[in-house]
Amino acid sequence: MAERGDGPVAGRTSPGRVPARTGPPAGVGASAPLAGTAREAGAGGGPGRPGAKPAGSRRYFSVRGGDWAFAVVGLPLALAGGVYALAVLYAGALLSLTVLGLPFVVAALLGARGFGVLHRWLVGRLLGERVEAPVRPALPAGAVARGRAVLTDPVAWRALLYLVLRLPLGVLGFVAAVALPLGCGWLLGFPLWRRLLEGPQPVTWLDAGSAPLGLVLPAAVPGAVRALSAANRRLARLLLGPARAQRRVQELEAARATLITDNTDQLRRLERDLHDGTQARLVALAITLSLAEDALDPGAGPDVVRLRTLVDRARGQTDDTITELRRLTRGIHPVALDGGLGEALPGLTATSPVPVTVHLDVRERPHAVVERAVYFCAAELLTNVAKHSGAHSATLTARVADGRTVLSVRDDGRGGAALGVGTGLTGLAERLAAVDGVLRVDSPPGGPTTVTAELPNRL
């Protein structure tokens, strides 16, 4: 099978086509069925319809109602917050040499946090930008210790900076959404207003240019409103959310919770399988051996036929128990990983029902935990390709170099996969986050689908 252009990674190529493996489903597939059919060109008011406006012009002139409302309603809050921030900075500088300086700044920072809550709520309701609320600082006992905690709180200082920067954006947004359209109306009627106020006047260049200018300027209103709304969203994301250190702590806490949950589920599943499967087989084997001991009655003589039957049964039960134990231990640590990813991944792709081309560039061996995560990630992605994508071929690329491990699985299926749509890819992303990894999905409708996992070599 011809290799697909997934990158300059060189290595071995191992296409395989064997019956599918049996095992539990690995979650939602890497590709979901594409709903609906493609519309014909020119149908439903598209570009092919005579007299229809181009789609680009429609998108340009369309502005969300929340953007208009934020530009109008947000001005009073922006003015109040900006004046508050500037007054705090001015008064704080004046009082910095007095006893009241630090207590004033502490109270001002707490007030800035309150303004941040109001702005974060307004941005979420009107602009549709959900900004995660930062964690409140732990205030220790004692006035001095509490004041020190507030003064060193980065969230409060970032909220104060947001209030300063939000002031000009709020004024510009109100000008673009309200003042500019009103000014256009004034320009259109400028010749009339001038003559009503000043009486009959000769036609000047102002009369001739005001009306065209009043007709042209409204075209800039939608773009200006959208651009300012985008700037407000970005500013809120940067300054009203958790600080980088707090966000990192939250990510690590979530990853730890996911890892603990996964390990707990695995232990419970292993305990249940040992109790219901292996233990039951060992009990049956013990009963069979007891019956074989009864068949060796020294008084009546051994029953050779019955004894042979019981021994054959015990041998079969022993083989079943060994197979069961191998199946259980395979999920704990795959034996294929003893030789590293260079040996494990080609063996994994050989069991896929979809032909898979393998490209490997393994210059160093990552940490054992990272290897295990990459192996099970590849197993789930290949299972998803076989079950959900409808693909005819796939390519698996693995690169371990420069302190990073990158795994990429690409298929020529129907596409349409996305994080958050189902539990499979979302769960896989959460498990990778537990080892500081990230999962990226590129799956446009119609395909191809490329899922990339990137992890550090060392934890």
Mean pLDDT: 74
Helix content: 55-70%
Question: What is the string of helix and strand elements?
Answer: HHHHHHHHHHHEHEEHEE
Strand order of the largest sheet: 1-2-3-5-4
Protein architecture, described:
The chain is elongated, with a radius of gyration of 34 Å. Helix content is 59%, strand content 8%. The chain is built from 13 helices and five strands. The chain is α+β, with helices and mostly antiparallel strands and 459 residues long.
Features of this protein?
459 residues, elongated, alpha+beta, 13 helices, 5-stranded mixed β-sheet
Topology of helices and strands:
Elements: H1 55-61, H2 65-95, H3 101-127, H4 143-151, H5 154-188, H6 190-198, H7 205-216, H8 220-239, H9 244-294, H10 304-330, H11 341-349, E1 356-362, H12 368-389, E2 394-401, E3 404-411, H13 423-433, E4 438-442, E5 449-456
Parallel strand pairs: 1-2
Antiparallel strand pairs: 2-3, 3-5, 4-5
Give a short synopsis of this structure.
This protein has helices spanning 55-61, 65-95, 101-127, 143-151, 154-188, 190-198, 205-216, 220-239, 244-294, 304-330, 341-349, 368-389, 423-433, and strands at 356-362, 394-401, 404-411, 438-442, 449-456.
